[in-house]
Amino acid sequence: MPEPIVLLVEDEPLVLLVAQDALEAGGYTVLPVQLASEALKVLDTRIAELSGVVTDIRLPGGSDGWAIARHARELKPDLPVVYTTSDGAADWPARGVPNSVVVQKPYAGAQLLTALSTLVTKADTNRTN
Amino acid sequence: MPEPIVLLVEDEPLVLLVAQDALEAGGYTVLPVQLASEALKVLDTRIAELSGVVTDIRLPGGSDGWAIARHARELKPDLPVVYTTSDGAADWPARGVPNSVVVQKPYAGAQLLTALSTLVTKADTNRTN
Amino acid sequence: MPEPIVLLVEDEPLVLLVAQDALEAGGYTVLPVQLASEALKVLDTRIAELSGVVTDIRLPGGSDGWAIARHARELKPDLPVVYTTSDGAADWPARGVPNSVVVQKPYAGAQLLTALSTLVTKADTNRTN
Amino acid sequence: MPEPIVLLVEDEPLVLLVAQDALEAGGYTVLPVQLASEALKVLDTRIAELSGVVTDIRLPGGSDGWAIARHARELKPDLPVVYTTSDGAADWPARGVPNSVVVQKPYAGAQLLTALSTLVTKADTNRTN
Amino acid sequence: MPEPIVLLVEDEPLVLLVAQDALEAGGYTVLPVQLASEALKVLDTRIAELSGVVTDIRLPGGSDGWAIARHARELKPDLPVVYTTSDGAADWPARGVPNSVVVQKPYAGAQLLTALSTLVTKADTNRTN
Amino acid sequence: MPEPIVLLVEDEPLVLLVAQDALEAGGYTVLPVQLASEALKVLDTRIAELSGVVTDIRLPGGSDGWAIARHARELKPDLPVVYTTSDGAADWPARGVPNSVVVQKPYAGAQLLTALSTLVTKADTNRTN
Question: Which of B69, C46, C105, F51 is most open to solvent, judged by the fewest CB atoms within 10 Å of its CB?
Fold first, then answer.
């Protein structure tokens, strides 16, 4: 069985590592990127393969997690979105996309894995009707 | 007991009437506006009084329901938002705000009232902690 | 604005009246039927117009509420379904359809109206993506 | 069809009136009481008939809404509970009962009716399994 | 502490392996079967021990996942049910059981584990009242 | 990245071990205690550091899981709470705190991890507004 693929956007290398390890241990293939600009490129070229996006909110590379998630949803309206953040997410009610969640740093790997997996199952179940 | 106040944005006069009637019969005081520009003005001047926003998505007046809801949430992050639409809401997953709902036209007055009331109770309950 | 149309299946005339009154007062147009066989006919001929089904579980006419709901969902997979019952609904976990609810008799008109309206809004909102 | 019965606990006469009107208009029979001590008595003598409790948090009569709800749940574990309050409900996360909601005053009658009805349907649906 | 037991129904040996590994790594004891007929036998003889069912929809052995889940719920009304599928689950709204979810193949092991665990906790929590 | 810290209250040493292993494997740092009195002390001295509480209901040490959870919520109103129990949790509807869940023993480690992680994400997401 091939693995579902997740875009992971995180500029802090150590956090990226923890997140990637947790998601891979759970059976996801991870596309890790550190710049917002790269993330947008991955979305434009590989959206059909993606089962979810995990993105930090504050990012280098001329854009941010809000824009990445919005672009992802324009391309695939039911794509699961998990935002991660270490400075709170006061803008989420205004700038987040519907049916997304926020995971505050520092987080346990299992929290990220559970958050993503829960959204993927909701999308799978809703897609049936 | 004074009544909670709701901003209602709808450019079709007959639909506006049905919606206003339903909300008022349910015990809400309604601020009805027909232009997006007016809606934005009401938000800027009376946000503190508002308990919710019901907004059509496609609107005259140089803006739309997505922008109205986003601006409302910038001013009051837990404000209940109900979008109404007669041409579907394919953009909702990308442009809607979190914890909002979509009501498709033609709708029953009770659907609008229930949708708004459910979101107000969720906001009231979450505000406790 | 035309009204959304709901199929209401209930063999007890007095209960049918209460339910019909409540739904109509809330802005729904009601198609009332008292036999399961009629209900199945309405589904086959008018499914495209329907916004929801409210059905008693135990019914005369050679079928029951479980079969009506299942047939409705075969024709329109996201149709809201409310089951009503006066002898409990012990079979619901095995025979009910997903995303349906149970309303026990005697019920308040507002309970039926809220149950139906809540499911219609969920369907409207999910249909966007 | 007889009507489901709800215990309504509210010491401000005008608010009691608005709430009672809204619930009765929705098809509930209301037992209105103004003292916590009376509420506890009604629970002890008529619990079997009750379909829900709506209670103000701060009350005269030697007790409060937290105690009323807790006592109600000891007698009937799945009874719907709606708390109402005009000074916030900061204690809800510590003192409220599970599966209850908070409605902040001033509220629209429809909000109270929707909150109660939603909880009654959840209880009806869960009682099936 | 003994482990909770889950019936896993999957006819593709490699997928069965991935699923079994994920569930066992999460602390569940797995009863793996490849035929629908075997699954029905396990339900009839060991239902009391089971904490959940994970079943593929399309199966050899004269029956399918819809029938397995329905039979399981007849025997134990609050049993958690996860359907898995590689060709979508267009019949789920008509043929699935309430409070079940769909997991689309290919899935990550963590998705299956999270889906099952979430349903078990809901059942545990609802069983209290 | 430091790890989020969870208070784990369990008097049976073998169960404590299974739970601690599961939570640590998921990336949480666990403060394990076996007496209710110790648990209350940890809450009073280290509440600011805690991301969640997992507590058995029946405990030695002059108190129980209901009191621990209530005290935790007085100190931190949005703290995630998971109750564990081997004799059912018939008192949960009256004595549990809102937005908590019950996990029945024997449980799989993944169930505990998923239950806790789900509540932490809900708290993280609600904290944004």
Answer: C46
